[in-house]
Amino acid sequence: MMGRLPDSIESITQARLCTGCGVCAHLHPDRLQMADVPDVGRRPLPIVGVTGPTTGAGVAACPGRELSHPVGSLDDAPFHGEWGPVLDLYECWAADPVLRHRGSSGGVVSALAAHAIEAGIAVGALQVRASQEDPLRNETVLNRSREDIVTATGSRYSPASPCERLDLVEDAEGPCVVVGKPCDIAGTRKAAEQRAALADKVAVTLGIFCAGTPSTEATRSVVADLGIDPDTVKRLDYRGEGWPGEFRVETHDGRRASTSYADSWGKLTKHRQWRCLICPDHTGEFADLSIGDPWYRPVTDEEGGRSLVVVRTERGRRLLESALAGGALEGAPLSMDKLPASQPNLESTRGAVWGRVQSMRLLGMPTPRFRGMPSFRLWWKLPLRAKLTSTLGTARRIFVRGLKRPEFEPREVGSRGRTR
Ligand SMILES: Cc1cc2nc3c(=O)[nH]c(=O)nc-3n(C[C@H](O)[C@H](O)[C@H](O)COP(=O)(O)OP(=O)(O)OC[C@H]3O[C@@H](n4cnc5c(N)ncnc54)[C@H](O)[C@@H]3O)c2cc1C
Ligand code: SF4
Ligand code: SF4
């Protein structure tokens, strides 16, 4: 898809095309710092005293602005390339009962990261976890042991910018695992294409399926709906300890409250950033392995969690086979049809994205460039009502929600150097 492409980080964010991955802040640490913009998400803000727009490496690596598969690379891919490169499909779970129980689905991401370190494939794993200072926010760390990895199990359905800490990978003494949402992994890959020092240190990338990132305020409002003051929360889990498990909070004075995964996600999803609604890659097409929920059949909280694993590259296949052979993972191959059957909503969303982007372009809005990511056929498969919602409905939404206006009031942030 071609459109008016913004040419600086500031114009990308103002046009609501930023995913919040943080890769531009990694590439321009003296100009940009990631910060949580209320009701929006994490955004790269100019550091006080920086003048002029940020262009160059960060723009080239930005996954919000552009995503593309090389011409012809998906010619032989299953599903007409609409699910990206798919070499094989597996259903797996962590052999370690702690990782499986605490994990979002089968604890497979955590088990793969731990196996990579213990088998000497990697020295660490770049992962997002709840901030130790403020459990309603997230932080990115380089975990170096199974004990560290346990602290990062589970999904954080709130803003996180793992790529802002790619410096930890670049400065590590050996190769690392990088875990992230599809946009985080695409940003990592694009940055590695520009920087040999980073490429040398990325052992393998693990992408988690992602339907979208809700704002921090969305989490606060789900907590408030449970009768808990968000400022008193000591620990917050979005799911896990069951499959899918419940949204659970615990306060400093020991009070606990919870609600179902369906109820919490139903509320959070209304607060996803706009860029997520025009995201064509919800399944980590640029990762070596991508992992989600095998929801091709009903599941219960009583059964042990399982994860769907999409093998995207030979490098990913080697890690998966090593983890299965080494006893870190259990599971087996799955027939390809279980991929769309597991995530029918993500398939229809990709169709709707085609219609939404056309509407944005017709209304003169800056649009991202997506190449080699077929989606028109999925739009064509949508029922008439969904086709109209994705086009005319989007046009209406653009005016009603004022989406042509900048996403937030520009402002500067505190200090030079990376946020720790
Ligand atoms: C915002 C969001 C939306 C999602 N939407 C879907 C969906 O529509 N369909 C689906 O099947 N799955 C979705 N997932 C993924 C799913 O929740 C599980 O993460 C996935 O099944 C892997 O489970 P696991 O038990 O193998 O991973 P675990 O072993 O629990 O490990 C999870 C890993 O994800 C990392 N992580 C958690 N939150 C974030 C974050 N916000 N940003 C970057 N990294 C993070 C952690 O650091 C950890 O390494 C979503 C996850 C997120 C964060
Ligand atoms: S998507 Fe990532 S690289 Fe692009 S502007 Fe946002 S934080 Fe920066
Ligand atoms: S929906 Fe797409 S753009 Fe949004 S956070 Fe997920 S992968 Fe990134």
Structure, explained:
- The protein is globular and about 55 Å long.
- An 8-stranded mixed β-sheet has the order 6-5-7-8-12-13-4-14, with helices on both faces. Strands 9-10-11 form a 3-stranded antiparallel β-sheet.
- It is α/β, with parallel strands linked by helices.
- The chain has helices at residues 9-14, 23-27, 57-61, 97-102, 108-118, 146-150, 166-170, 182-194, 196-199, 216-225, 261-268, 274-277, 314-325, 338-342, 344-362, 376-381, 384-400; strands spanning 32-37, 41-46, 66-68, 88-94, 124-130, 138-143, 176-180, 202-208, 233-237, 247-251, 256-259, 289-292, 307-311, 329-333, 369-371.
- α5 packs across α13 (314-325) and α15 packs across α17.
- The protein is 34% helix and 19% strand.
- The structure holds flavin-adenine dinucleotide and iron/sulfur cluster (SF4) (2 copies).
- One iron/sulfur cluster binds at residues 9, 12-13, 18-24, 44, 58, 62-64, 187.
The total beta strand count reads 15
Bound molecules: flavin-adenine dinucleotide, iron/sulfur cluster
Helix content: 25-40%
What is the chains' assembly state? single chain
The neighbouring-strand order within the major sheet is 6-5-7-8-12-13-4-14
Percent strand = 15-25%
Low-confidence stretches: none
Query: What is the residue-mean pLDDT, rounded to a whole number?
Result: 96
What form results from the Cα inertia axes? globular
Distance between the termini: 37 Å
Give me the Rg, rounded: 20 Å
Helix-strand category: alpha/beta
How many helices in DSSP terms? Answer: 17
Largest sheet: 8 strands, mixed
